[in-house]
Every structure is written in structure tokens, then in C-alpha cells.
Amino acid sequence: MDFDLGEEHKMIRDMCREFSRSVIVPRAEEIERTGEYPYDVIEQMAELGMMGIPFPSEFGGSGGDWVGMHLCIEEVSRGDIPLGALLDVTTSVVGQELYSFGTEDQKRKWLVPIARGEEIGAFGMTEPDAGSDAGSIRTTALLDGDEWLISGTKQFITNIGLDNASIIVITALTKKAVKGRGVISTFIVPKDAPGFFLGKRYEKIGWHGSANHQVIFEDCRVPEENLLGDPTKGFSQHLAVLQTGRISIAAISVGAAQACLDESLQYAKQRTQFGQPIASFQAIKFKLADMAAAVELGRNQYLKAAWLKDQGRKHSFEATVAKLYASEILEKVASEAVQIHGGYGYMAEYPVSRFYKGAKVLQIVEGTSEVMRIILSRELGL
Ligand SMILES: Cc1cc2nc3c(=O)[nH]c(=O)nc-3n(C[C@H](O)[C@H](O)[C@H](O)COP(=O)(O)OP(=O)(O)OC[C@H]3O[C@@H](n4cnc5c(N)ncnc54)[C@H](O)[C@@H]3O)c2cc1C
Questions:
Q1: Which DSSP category does 200 fall into?
Q2: How far is the CA of 363 from the centre of ligand 1 (A)?
């Protein structure tokens, strides 16, 4: 067993850590306050190759692996959770779906610009009446000559509001159910397809720098060749890539929790009450000790899941544990970080307040904590 990161992994981690510290951290509060999308930061992330780490160079990537990708996601999220979420969606979900299930032509056309970060991808599974029960979607795709005619609405879609978001990979029913559920296929829908409409931008508690919108398809036409992968397995394709998305949500959570720990340690050493630094009180020390233990366990678990994926081994149990554990500990860690900061922790200019607001939704996206427990129960044969 070897818990040491290799040289290449250390290089990626250190580069992303330095980028996060020098570029993201100084901008994060302003991004959250204004809600303006940080195109300049995203462009620099693309120039550093962050969006293409796990893909081969022939498809615009750098030939790395999923351990490297997730170290990058952790470090980026240490500066800003929504930028970690951007990477999760465009690389771990959309890029991977194109890479795993796309034809050679589809990969050249759609994956290359996404892996290079010139364009950003979005994925659309959730609908107004289909969230956790993602198999109950109503969006339809019917073949009309050599084009698919897509109708329906997807909601809460991350990244799609960015000017350089080029495609959304969606699930749609291609055959209505005769008995049980219909057949679900996956489609690549360019944002400039006729009949594609960008719906409202959501007003959220946090994540103001994340471009979440509703998406409406009104007889939206895409060429027949935009069907992605096996037409009868669109749903399982989406679920397969979401396993990696779960490792990414865990890495985001660990990055944010690490930032909460760092901020709290520093603050506790310099804040004086009753004539001594608050770090000298056992009540504060124990909070910091619990935070450090949680970060350590969350990191080990997401790295194990990413490593198993890189070995081509089954990793659904490990990825689900990582997502469930890391997103739940983040809420607690962020809450304790605010507590350690006292009243200052509730002020917008203190990073811990931003992490506190941004934490909760990680227990909801890409499968809620309840859904994670359902998956784990199944793994236990229950
Ligand atoms: C900021 C944000 C970004 C998002 N980005 C995307 C995106 O890019 N693409 C996309 O497709 N979706 C996205 N989503 C949607 C997200 O994946 C869904 O919100 C999530 O899957 C839950 O679905 P729901 O909101 O419909 O909740 P529901 O499924 O209605 O669940 C409501 C509650 O019921 C519980 N519940 C449901 N079923 C069961 C059950 N069988 N047993 C026990 N409890 C159950 C849930 O756990 C939850 O607590 C995003 C959401 C948010 C908030």
C-alpha cells in the first residue's frame, strides 16, 4: 500500500493550490457579492489545463488521471466552491460522458473544446417533476427525418448561463412506456440549436458565481448524430458518469472544509478574549481537532474512490461513501468555523460565512444524502 502522491500528482496539487491562493481567494468574496461570472478566472483555469486533466492529448487533455483531476477540484474549491462545481460538471460529468460514450467524431467535435476549457459543458437530468426519481423525466426526443425533435424543461442546470457554455448533455424519453418506464437516451444539445431557450437564472442562498438556469426545449432540433452512446442505455450512461461526479462533490467538500479549518486555526490563534488567544481554550481546540479529523477522512475517501476509478475497478460504494460523508461533514465543519469566528464569522467579508452558505447544497446535488443512503443500503443487499 502506498499513500504517497506521485510527482505528477504533487505538481498538479501544488499548481492548483498556488492558483487558488493567488487568483481565486482574492476574488471569491467579490464574485459572491456581485454574482458576476468570473470569466477571467475561468479563462486562466483553462489555460492551466484544469478542464482536461483526465483526457488524452488527442482529445484536448493532458493525459492525466482522475486522482489528479480531483486534487485540482479540491484545491480550486478551497478558494471558491462554485468554481469547483464548474469543474465537476464540465469535466467529471459532461467531458467524461463524451469521452466514455461518444464516437470518434463526437469526441473531436464536442470534447476537444471542453477539455481545453474553451467551451464549458452542462448536464441536464433534473426536471420540475423528476429530481431524485430521475428516471421519471417527461422530456421527449422524437426522430423527425434526420433530426431529433426535443421538447421539455430541465431545471437547476449548472454552468448553462455562462456565455461560453456551448452544450448541454441531456436525458430524454425516446420511447414512451408501454408498461413500466420508457426508454431514455442521451443527447448533445448545442446552446444555439433552434428551439433551445435559456430560462430564468435562479436566485440562490449562496453559489452566486455559479450560472444556474432553467432550460426549455420547444421543438428543439438537433441532428440525428447528436444521440450519445447506446440509445437504450441513456439513463445508465448518465448514472455511470454521476459516480465520478460524486467523487468530485466529495473533493469540493473537502477543499471547502480545509479552507474552513485553515481560516479558523489562524483566527483562533490571533483572537484574544479573557486575556488569551481563544485557541488556548479547550472548547475551541476540540472543535479544531474534530474539523481536522473530518477533513483527513474525507480526503482519504475521495482519493481512494478516484484511485479505484483510475484502476478501472468498481468504485460505486467508495464514491457514494465519499460524497455522503464529505458533504455532511462540510456542513458541520463550516458551522463550527463560523462559531469559532463568533460574530465576525457571520459577516460577508469573512470567507467562512461564504463556505457556510455554500455547504448545504452539496448534500443535495448529484444525488441527495438520502439517495446516497439508499444506494449504500442496496450495496449491503438491503
Ligand atoms: C445549485 C444546484 C445545482 C444543480 N445542478 C444541476 C445540474 O447541473 N444538472 C441537473 O440535472 N440537476 C442539477 N441540480 C438538481 C439536483 O441534482 C436535484 O435538486 C437533486 O437531485 C434533488 O432533486 P429535487 O430537488 O427534485 O428533490 P426531490 O427529489 O424532490 O427530493 C426532496 C426530498 O425528498 C427526499 N427523497 C426523495 N426520494 C426519496 C426516497 N426514495 N427516499 C427517501 N427520501 C427521498 C430527498 O432526499 C429530499 O430530501 C442542481 C440543484 C441545485 C440546487
A1: E
A2: 9
Burial 163-185, CB ≥16 within 10 A → b, else e: ebbbbbbbbbbbeeeeeeebebb
pLDDT at 271: 98
Q: Which atom of ligand 1 lies at the shortest distance from residue 134's CA?
A: 21
Q: Which residue has the CA at smallest separation from atom 27 of ligand 1?
A: 131
Q: What is residue 307's DSSP assignment? A: H
Alpha carbon of 200 to ligand 1 centroid (Å): 18
Question: Distance between CA atoms of 27 and 70, rounded to whole angstroms?
Answer: 22
Neighbour tally for 236: CB within 10 Å: 12
pLDDT of residue 77: 98
Beta strands in the chain (DSSP E): 120-124, 140-144, 147-157, 165-175, 183-190, 196-201, 213-223, 227-228, 272-273, 276-277
pLDDT at 23: 98
Instruction: Check pocket membership of 171 for ligand 1, CB cut-off 6 A.
Output: no
> Residue 261: what are its φ and ψ, rounded to 5°?
-65, -45
C-alpha cell recorded at residue 244: 465520478
Known catalytic residue at 366: yes
pLDDT of residue 237: 95
Which residues are CB-contacts of 262 (< 8 A; sequence separation ≥ 6)?
78
Backbone torsions φ then ψ of 148, nearest 5 degrees = -90, 140
What is the position in ligand 1's atom list of the atom closest to the CA of 133?
29
168 in ligand 1 pocket by Cβ < 6 Å? no
pLDDT score at 30: 97
pLDDT < 50: residue spans in the chain: none
pLDDT in tens, 40-91: 999 999 999 999 999 999 999 999 999 999 999 999 999 999 999 999 999 9
Q: Choose the catalytic residue: 36, 225, 366, 379.
A: 366
CA atoms in the 13 A half-sphere facing the CB of 253:
37
Ligand 1 centroid to Cα of residue 131, in Å, is 5
Which ranges of 151-191 does DSSP label H, i.e. alpha helix?
none
Cell of 148: 431529433
127 C-alpha vs ligand 1 centroid, how far in Å?
Answer: 10
Q: Cα angle vertex 216, ends 212, 219, to 5°?
A: 155
What phi and psi values does residue 181 have, to the nearest 5 degrees? -100, 155
**Nearest protein Cα to ligand 1, atom 6:** 157
